């Protein structure tokens, strides 16, 4: 009896050990990645790297200033396009929990969220690049905004659903029109959650490359005109990584460092907002 | 006073308020219309995407029909296009990635859902997994190019296979790392939602922790875990950049895990910029197929999770 | 807090609007868009950098392969394309309107490899064909050894790499093999995208192939000469029709170029008869529409393009030799200028 029990206890301990081992083993790649990005990336980052344009192929020196500006521009562009539509659609869904339109919208959001980014890139090419007859930052921004929409809609809906009904009741009881109630009472109280959703979706698209391959196209010069091609950090990383030049490889690590820092910062800020400014009811 | 009556009263008043004639009614109607329109816009967007893909792929659909999926040859010069190599490449690498990642994501789910639900260790692991999920795909590709590829090459040289370094194995490995967070976080949630009284009952009968997890928790959370795995699979299937950098770009059916291959996503990334006529239509046909596969996988996964969260919220009350 | 948020969003939108719409598409800071071959891209990036410093015109050129360059020009999403493969009759027909080619320089496609000790190898056309057909699988195969009696070739598997994208470099390479090797001609033939044998690796662009070969022991690929030189990678001597093993170099490429150039500059230099000529040489072209008024293009933009092209076959040629490409001969440059002079905008010639 004792022996049987010991066997079971051994199995119990062994299982716990295996679970812990595997759980932390899966972090090994993460640490390796972060280690190499930091080690190789920081070595490359200096004033030149951050503020100069790339040099011709094979020449040393230069930087990724155009890519940094490009990424920031694409973020702003896609946010401006997707945020209004996303928030309003999210409000609609939170106010209309049942109904054919609501359910269809919810289904569409699920499907859009799972759509591969390369497919969205093709769509942006067919809808914007081909008709306008030029590659442009605009087409890249549109592609990225399609990817941001589902996240914004979902987080807006979920945030607003959490707001208790009596807040709306009180406002309506005071005679405030319905639309003002939504805009001036409900929305502000859910703002932290919505902001979190926006930041998370921005973090998601910051690192996207596939949709930019045939839309934003890349540009070795600085560009802030949305109707012209634009460079971006993920595109630079891809281009430099697949090249034979060792200096370009270290530039790829440097650009990766900037990108990872940017993405992590966005995630941290998002989490910070949701923790600190969450209105408790 | 019971809450329901008051809420109902206010709900009736609210509806009445919406029916008040005059300026307020019109602006409200307009407001509701705007809301509904932006929601409808999303549906229209999705429909437009489908229609665009279908129309541009039409020449290829008409030419190859359903035999597209059985065609082994993808040749731009003779304009014969068959998507089987990419279907196999996608499924092969995605499922291999899934098998590699399942032990790890399951371990994380159990670790965070059972053993360490709270505390410093839990927060640490949870944040680390979130960081893992947030790293962009192209950076995984970069890392894989310089660290995974030489490692796989060493293995191939030891075994005696051609030391490509790229191929199904390498891309599956990087995919596995990328999809761990997705199945892990969903698994963690469903495991932590297992009702305490079920577990308590088992403990009171003298079961060890391991036995409770194996016989109570996992079976109970099974559908949720599977849903998480499905969503991870959906992510792996649609993944483009890291795969393009590590899969070897060969338009032939892969014959072993060391073969170079192409997935549906990577062949599009490689060939779309230069594709004309029937080649472009065929690539978009591939994109359409990819779209449908990920759509089905995602819908199934999401609905299972939704059903579970409805069920578990019913259980709580 | 809501007020702060909405103010931030409005501010962002206003800034974006100001920034984006204050610089219209056809602004004074002229920017031309080109895409295509990676074969001449090191030269072009140097040329465009110099042109930008001198004339303040930005030329954005992305290396997506010759196939990509031709396709995007046909779709009119770029101002000009770069290709090392002259457009086929079918491609010219798809374009709808007449497309002109001008050569910009000559280059060599070299066979580069990764072997311990970086030995200098001699390759016969038969050896090259067999390697890329997959019929010889190891480096110490007799077909390679026989041409290299002084080199101890290791018993390593050959990892052959080709271009995954539609490539003019592939076209030059395969055209040579089609002319020089019967088996290649019958099985694979020439073109930008080929039906390579199964199990080989594909990489994007000249940089992709060079990068992969550099990292993989036993790998062999074909790239433009400069990529091998810049990365200190070994490349082989190839036996030409005269029977001599020629080292790829600027001189050897120029030697292969002493052929008559037709008016449309469609000429092939592979498998040259010249005794000192490198057999895998080729021109690279820039392609553009003859009639420049399409898609609402402004005249200034067309003029800028014509100016750029004239510069590239004229003053710009001084950048060619330092990068190991061969410059255009006087005859080739003259033909190119003749073609540029035939460019029109609404029927009137752009260049006087």
How would you portray this structure in words?
The complex is a heterotrimer of chains A (about 280), B (about 325) and C (about 350). With about 280 residues, chain A is mostly helical. Helices cover about 75% and strands about 0% of the residues of chain A. Chain A contains twelve helices and no strands. Chain A has helices spanning about 1-25, 30-45, 45-50, 65-95, 100-115, 115-130, 135-160, 165-175, 180-190, 190-205, 235-240, 245-275. The longest helix of chain A has about 30 residues, at about 65-95. Chain B is mostly helical and about 325 residues long. The mean pLDDT of chain B is about 85. Chain B has a single domain, classed as MetI-like fold (Orthogonal Bundle), CATH 1.10.3720.10. The longest helix of chain B has about 40 residues, at about 25-65. An eight-stranded mixed β-sheet of chain C has the order 2-1-3-11-4-8-6-7. In chain C, strands 5-9-10 form a three-stranded mixed β-sheet. A two-stranded antiparallel ribbon of chain C has the order 12-13. Chains A and B meet through helix 1, helix 2, helix 4, helix 5 and helix 6 of A and helix 1, helix 2, helix 3, helix 4 and helix 5 of B.
What keyword list fits this structure?
heterotrimer; A: 281 residues; mainly alpha; MetI-like fold; 12 helices; 75% helix; B: 317 residues; two-stranded antiparallel ribbon; 11 helices; 78% helix; flat
């Amino acid at each position: 009896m004792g022996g049987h029990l010991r066997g079971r206890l051994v199995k119990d301990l062994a299982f716990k050990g295996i679970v812990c081992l595997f759980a932390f083993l899966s972090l090994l790649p993460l640490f390796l990645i972060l280690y190499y990005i930091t080690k190789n990336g920081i070595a490359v980052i200096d004033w030149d790297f951050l503020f100069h344009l790339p040099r011709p192929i094979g020449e040393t020196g230069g930087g990724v200033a155009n890519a940094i500006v490009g990424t920031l521009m694409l973020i702003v562009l896609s946010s401006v396009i997707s945020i209004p539509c996303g928030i309003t659609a999210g409000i609609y869904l939170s106010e209309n929990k049942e109904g054919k339109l609501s359910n269809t919208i919810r289904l569409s959001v699920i499907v859009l969220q799972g759509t591969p980014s390369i497919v969205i890139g093709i769509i942006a090419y067919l809808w914007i690049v081909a008709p306008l007859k030029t590659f442009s930052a605009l087409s890249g921004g549109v592609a990225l905004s399609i990817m941001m929409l589902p996240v914004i809609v979902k987080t807006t809906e979920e945030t607003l659903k959490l707001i208790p009904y009596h807040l709306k009741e009180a406002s309506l009881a005071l005679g405030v029109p319905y639309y003002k109630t939504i805009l001036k009472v409900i929305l502000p109280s859910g703002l932290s959650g919505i902001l979190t959703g926006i930041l998370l979706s921005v973090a998601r698209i910051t690192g996207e490359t596939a949709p930019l391959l045939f839309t934003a196209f890349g540009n070795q010069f600085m560009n802030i005109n949305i109707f012209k091609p634009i460079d971006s950090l993920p595109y630079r990383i891809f281009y430099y990584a697949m090249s034979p030049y060792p200096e370009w490889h270290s530039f790829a690590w440097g650009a990766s460092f900037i990108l990872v820092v940017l993405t992590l910062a966005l995630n941290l800020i998002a989490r910070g907002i949701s923790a600190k400014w969450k209105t408790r009811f | 006073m019971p809450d329901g009556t008051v809420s109902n009263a206010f709900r009736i008043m609210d509806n009445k308020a919406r029916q008040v004639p005059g300026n307020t009614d019109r602006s409200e109607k307009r407001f509701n219309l705007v809301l509904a329109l932006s929601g409808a816009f999303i549906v229209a967007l999705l429909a437009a995407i489908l229609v665009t893909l279908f129309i541009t792929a039409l020449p290829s659909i008409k030419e190859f029909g359903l035999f597209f999926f059985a065609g082994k040859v993808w040749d731009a010069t003779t304009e014969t296009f068959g998507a089987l190599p990419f279907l196999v490449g996608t499924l092969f690498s995605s499922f291999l990635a899934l098998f590699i990642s399942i032990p790890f994501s399951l371990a994380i789910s159990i670790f965070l859902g059972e053993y360490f639900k709270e505390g410093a260790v839990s927060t640490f692991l949870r944040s680390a997994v979130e960081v893992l999920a947030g790293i962009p795909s192209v950076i995984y590709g970069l890392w894989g190019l310089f660290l995974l590829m030489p490692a796989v090459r060493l293995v191939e040289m030891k075994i005696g296979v051609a030391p490509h370094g790229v191929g199904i194995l390498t891309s599956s490995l990087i995919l596995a790392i990328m999809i761990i967070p997705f199945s892990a976080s969903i698994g963690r949630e469903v495991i932590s939602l297992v009702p305490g009284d079920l577990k308590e009952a088992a403990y009171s009968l003298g079961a060890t922790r391991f036995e409770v997890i194996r016989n109570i928790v996992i079976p109970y959370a099974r559908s949720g875990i599977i849903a998480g795995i499905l969503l991870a699979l959906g992510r792996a299937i649609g993944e483009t950049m890291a795969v393009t950098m590590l899969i070897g770009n060969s338009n032939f059916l892969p014959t072993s895990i060391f073969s170079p291959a192409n997935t549906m996503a990577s062949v599009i990334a490689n060939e779309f910029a230069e594709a004309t006529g029937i080649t472009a239509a065929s690539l978009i046909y591939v994109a359409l197929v990819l779209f449908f596969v990920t759509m089905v996988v995602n819908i199934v996964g999401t609905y299972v999770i939704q059903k579970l969260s409805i069920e578990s919220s019913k259980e709580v009350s | 807090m809501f007020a702060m948020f909405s103010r931030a969003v409005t501010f962002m939108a206003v800034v974006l609007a100001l920034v984006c719409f204050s610089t219209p598409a056809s602004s004074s800071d002229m920017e031309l868009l080109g895409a295509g071959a990676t074969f001449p891209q090191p030269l072009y990036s140097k040329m465009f950098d110099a042109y930008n410093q001198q004339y303040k015109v930005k030329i954005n050129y992305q290396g997506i392969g010759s196939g990509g360059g031709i396709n995007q020009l046909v779709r009119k999403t770029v101002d000009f394309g770069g290709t090392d493969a002259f457009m086929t009759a079918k491609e010219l027909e798809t374009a709808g309107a007449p497309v002109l080619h001008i050569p910009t320089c000559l280059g060599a496609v070299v066979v580069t490899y990764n072997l311990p000790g970086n030995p200098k190898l001699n390759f016969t056309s038969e050896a090259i064909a067999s390697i890329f057909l997959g019929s010889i699988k190891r480096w110490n195969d007799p077909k390679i050894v026989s041409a290299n009696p002084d080199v101890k070739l290791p018993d390593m598997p050959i990892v052959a790499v080709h271009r995954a994208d539609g490539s003019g470099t592939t076209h030059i390479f395969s055209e040579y093999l089609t002319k020089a090797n019967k088996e290649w001609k019958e099985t694979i033939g020439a073109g930008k995208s080929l039906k390579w044998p199964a199990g080989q690796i594909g990489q994007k662009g000249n940089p992709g192939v060079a990068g992969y070969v550099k990292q993989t022991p036993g790998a062999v690929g074909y790239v433009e000469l400069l990529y091998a030189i810049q990365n200190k990678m070994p490349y082989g001597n190839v036996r030409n029709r005269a029977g001599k093993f020629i080292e790829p170099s600027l001189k050897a490429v120029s030697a292969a170029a002493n052929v008559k150039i037709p008016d449309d500059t469609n000429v092939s230099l592979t498998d040259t008869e010249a005794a000192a000529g490198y057999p895998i040489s080729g021109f690279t072209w820039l392609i553009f529409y003859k009639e420049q008024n399409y898609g609402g293009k402004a005249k200034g933009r067309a003029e800028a393009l014509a100016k750029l092209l004239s510069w590239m076959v004229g003053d710009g040629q001084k950048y060619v030799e330092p990068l190991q490409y061969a410059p255009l001969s006087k005859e080739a440059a003259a033909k190119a200028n003749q073609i540029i002079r035939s460019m029109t905008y609404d029927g009137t010639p752009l260049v006087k």
